[in-house]
C-alpha cells in the first residue's frame, strides 16, 4: 500500500534473529557448551626410553616411551584435562595367539599405569581391555583353528587383563572388545578381588567401522585375516545399540560409550534419551585424520571444524568425548 518501506510494518511476530544480534546475546542463549571437563585424551605408549614417534596418519599424535609419556601427562593435567585413556604398542616378539602379555604384571601397560599414578596421581587413568594389541593375528579375541573368534575363553583372558590393570592402579577399565558378557564377568572379578572402586567404561555400541584405520596403524594391530564383523556392530543397526547398552548397564557398567562418534550421532542421542548413565563418545582416529588432512591442504579451518565437531557430539547427548584433539581444545578453552 505504502511506498515507504520504513513505515510499513510487516506481519512478523517472531524474529529469532533478535537473539543472534550481538555476541553477548548469542552466548546467553547457547544451549550446549564445550568444557575441558568433557575431554578424555587417548595416548599411545611404547617400550623404550627418550623417544616419541609421530603417527603418520594421525598428525600431532605420538607413540611415547613411558618417560616422555609421563611428561606429556603432567602437561595435559596442567591444562585441566581430567582423564587419559592408555593404549599400548606391543612389540611383535611379545605377541602370541592368546595375547598372554596382556596380563603380565610387569607388562608395558601395568608398569606405565603405576608410574602415572605415582607421578600424576590426580589424573584419571583409563586402561583399554582388549586383546588386539597383544595377539599375533590382531583380533580382539582368541581364535580356533578355523579363525572363529571364541567368546567365553576370550572373556576369561579379559578378566585377567582387567584385574592386572586394577592391581597396577587403573581408575577405570574400558573393555573395547565387544565380547558378550564381559562387563558382568569383569565387574564380578573386580569386586571379588576387592577392587570395588575401579570403574568400568563400557564400549557398549562399538561399530565395525572403517574409521579405525589410523589407530590400527598407530598400534600396528590391523587384523591379519578377516574383519571384526562377528563381534563389532553393523553400521545399519540402531536398536541393537540400545540392546547392547542395556546389557552393559545391567552387567554393571559405570559409563557407556558409543564409537565412532560422528557417523553415529543418532545413536548417541538415543542412548542419552533412554538411559541415565553418563554417555561417552569416541571421536575416533579416522575422524581426527580427516580433519587434519583437509586442514593440511588448506581446505578447511582446522580449529573451527574441530570445535564444531566436538560441540555437535555433545549436543547429540555425549557427556564425555574421547578425542585426539583433547590437548588442542584444552589449550583453546584454557
Ligand atoms: C580395539 C580398538 C580399536 C580402537 C580402540 N580400541 C580399533 C579396533 O576395534 O580395531 C579404535 C580407536 C580409534 O580409531 O581411534 N580394541
Write the topology of this structure.
Blueprint (H helix, E strand, L loop, with lengths): L22 H6 L10 E8 L5 E4 L2 E7 L1 H13 L4 E7 L18 H12 L4 E6 L12 E2 L5 E2 H18 L3 E4 L6 H11 L6 E8 L6 H7 L19 H13 L3 E5 L5 H10 L4 E5 L1 H12 L5 H15 L3 E4 L2 H8 L1
Parallel strand pairs: 1-3, 1-4, 1-12, 4-5, 5-8, 8-9, 9-10, 10-11, 11-12
Antiparallel strand pairs: 2-3, 6-7
Helix pairs in contact: 2-3, 3-4, 4-5, 8-10
Bound molecules: ligand PBG.
Describe the structure.
The chain is an alpha/beta fold. It has one domain: Aldolase class I (TIM Barrel). Helices cover 37% and strands 19% of the residues. The strands form two sheets. Strands 1-4-5-8-9-10-11-12 form an eight-stranded parallel β-barrel, surrounded by nine helices. Strands 6-7 form a two-stranded antiparallel sheet. Strand 8, helix 5 and strand 9 form a beta-alpha-beta unit. Helix 2 crosses helix 3, helix 3 runs parallel beside helix 4 and helix 8 packs parallel to helix 10. It is globular, with a radius of gyration of 22 Å. The chain starts with 22 loop residues before the first helix and ends with a helix. The mean pLDDT is 96. The chain binds ligand PBG. Ligand PBG binds next to helix 6. The site of ligand PBG has 12 residues, from helix 6. This is Delta-aminolevulinic acid dehydratase. One of its GO terms (molecular function) is porphobilinogen synthase activity. Pfam families: ALAD. It catalyses: 2 5-aminolevulinate = porphobilinogen + 2 H2O + H(+). It is an enzyme of class 4 (lyase).
Amino acid at each position: 500500500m505504502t511506498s515507504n518501506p520504513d513505515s510499513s510494518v510487516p506481519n512478523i511476530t517472531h524474529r529469532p534473529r533478535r537473539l543472534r544480534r550481538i555476541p553477548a546475546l548469542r552466548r546467553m542463549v547457547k544451549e550446549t557448551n564445550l568444557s575441558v571437563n568433557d575431554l578424555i585424551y587417548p595416548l599411545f605408549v611404547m617400550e623404550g626410553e627418550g623417544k616419541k614417534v609421530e603417527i603418520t596418519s594421525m598428525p600431532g599424535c605420538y607413540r611415547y616411551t613411558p618417560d616422555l609419556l609421563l611428561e606429556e601427562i603432567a602437561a595435559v593435567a596442567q591444562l585441566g584435562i581430567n582423564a587419559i585413556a592408555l593404549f599400548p604398542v606391543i612389540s611383535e616378539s611379545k605377541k602370541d595367539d592368546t595375547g598372554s602379555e596382556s596380563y603380565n604384571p610387569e607388562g608395558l601397560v601395568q608398569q606405565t599405569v603405576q608410574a602415572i599414578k605415582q607421578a600424576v596421581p590426580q589424573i584419571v587413568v583409563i586402561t583399554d581391555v582388549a586383546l588386539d594389541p597383544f595377539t599375533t593375528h590382531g583380533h580382539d579375541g582368541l581364535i580356533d583353528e578355523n579363525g572363529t573368534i571364541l567368546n567365553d575363553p576370550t572373556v576369561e583372558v579379559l578378566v585377567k587383563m582387567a584385574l592386572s590393570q586394577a592391581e597396577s592402579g587403573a581408575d577405570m577399565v574400558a573393555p573395547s572388545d565387544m565380547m558378550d558378557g564381559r562387563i558382568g564377568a569383569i565387574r564380578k572379578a573386580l569386586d571379588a578381588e576387592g577392587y570395588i572402586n575401579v570403574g568400568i567404561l563400557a564400549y557398549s555400541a562399538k561399530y565395525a567401522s572403517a574409521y579405525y584405520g589410523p589407530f590400527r596403524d598407530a598400534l600396528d594391530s590391523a587384523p591379519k585375516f578377516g574383519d571384526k564383523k562377528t563381534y563389532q556392530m553393523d553400521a545399519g543397526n540402531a536398536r541393537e545399540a540400545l540392546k547392547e547398552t542395556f546389557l552393559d548397564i545391567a552387567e554393571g557398567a559405570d559409563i557407556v560409550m558409543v564409537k565412532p562418534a560422528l557417523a553415529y550421532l543418532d545413536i548417541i542421542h538415543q542412548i542419552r534419551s533412554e538411559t541415565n548413565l553418563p554417555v561417552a563418545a569416541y571421536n575416533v582416529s579416522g575422524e581426527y585424520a580427516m580433519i587434519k588432512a583437509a586442514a593440511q591442504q588448506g581446505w578447511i579451518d582446522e580449529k573451527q571444524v574441530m570445535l564444531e565437531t566436538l560441540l555437535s557430539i555433545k549436543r547429540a547427548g555425549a557427556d564425555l568425548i574421547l578425542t585426539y584433539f583433547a590437548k588442542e581444545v584444552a589449550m583453546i578453552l584454557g
